[in-house]
Amino acid sequence: MGAVLVQRDGPATRLVIDRPERDNSLTAADVRELADRLETAAADPATRVVVLAGAGGTLCTGMDLAEVAGGADAGGGSGFFDLLRRITEIDVTVVAALDGRAVGGGVGLAAACDLVVATERSAFSLPEALWGLLPCNILPFLIRRTGFQRAYAMTLSTATMTAAEARTAGLVDELDTAQGRHLRRLVGRLAKVDRATVGEAKAYCATLSPIGADTREHASATFARLLRTPAVHTRIDNYVRHQRMPWEQ
């Protein structure tokens, strides 16, 4: 069974990351599956909106550390970067829907989406620095949404941002009820917008805040270099083997 569930409802396709036993973390294969599901949804001419969510409300908690401890991700997360950039390109509106956490790569997914709807109990954090890493593939998309200082502060502090704080920062566009009333209303409005117009809007806005090939290569190379350092490897290995957090070592 795959890691991404597909639910269709008229003009909306819902993609649900379904790895609750791993807190909706993503392996490299999961990233590829999510990218494939996104392309399939976008290829359907009846689809106007893609809603990206996670089982149990948690959108995503980033990369699967067990896979990383096994020596995976030598590419520095370039596949994940490509997924984020593709979200910003396809000619359907992509909405992230949260009723829980977005951690690490989950923040990246939210930041790349066109709109983010979250309940008040949702929370956002970038814990990478605690491991000796940086959210290299996430920051270009987060900075585009929140501005430099907000993204920089999230990176260095590793502090959790509440949904209300995320809305003030520009990471969340609308606060919703647990029943998803606002999300349903938003999807209804978005479904009325022509796909050609969505594509034009994304292409034009990309010229105002471009994220190009140089950014991808720099992000991937930096992340891969940090991932190879002995200290990072030890911290991740100790967590996977002994459930010890970095500050407990």
Supply database-style keywords.
2-enoyl-CoA Hydratase, Chain A, domain 1, single chain, alpha/beta, 16% strand, 9 strands
Verbal overview:
The chain has helices spanning 28-43, 65-69, 78-87, 105-112, 128-131, 139-146, 148-157, 163-169, 181-190, 195-208, 213-227, 230-242, and strands at 4-9, 12-17, 49-54, 93-98, 101-103, 115-119, 123-125, 161-162, 174-176. It is an alpha/beta fold. The chain has one domain: 2-enoyl-CoA Hydratase, Chain A, domain 1 (Alpha-Beta Complex), CATH 3.90.226.10. Helix 1 packs parallel to helix 3 (78-87), helix 3 runs parallel beside helix 4 (105-112) and helix 4 crosses helix 6. The chain is globular and about 55 Å long.
Topology:
Layout: E1 4-9, E2 12-17, H1 28-43, E3 49-54, H2 65-69, H3 78-87, E4 93-98, E5 101-103, H4 105-112, E6 115-119, E7 123-125, H5 128-131, H6 139-146, H7 148-157, E8 161-162, H8 163-169, E9 174-176, H9 181-190, H10 195-208, H11 213-227, H12 230-242
Parallel strand pairs: 2-3, 3-4, 4-6, 5-7, 6-9
Antiparallel strand pairs: 1-2, 7-8
Helix pairs in contact: 1-3, 3-4, 4-6, 6-7
Number of domains: 1
Helicity range of the residues?
40-55%
Tell me, rounded to a whole number, the average pLDDT: 94
CATH class: Alpha Beta
* Major sheet: 6 strands, mixed
Distance between the termini: 36 Å
CATH superfamily (homologous) name: 2-enoyl-CoA Hydratase, Chain A, domain 1
The fraction of residues in strands falls at: 15-25%
Structural class: alpha/beta
CATH architecture: Alpha-Beta Complex
Regions with little confidence, pLDDT below 50 for 5+ residues? none
Write down the secondary-structure element order. Answer: EEHEHHEEHEEHHHEHEHHHH
Shape: globular
Order of adjacent strands in the largest pleated sheet: 1-2-3-4-6-9
Kindly provide the radius of gyration, computed on alpha-carbon positions and rounded to a whole number of angstroms: 17 Å
Number of helices: 12
Tally of extended strands?
9
CATH topology: 2-enoyl-CoA Hydratase, Chain A, domain 1
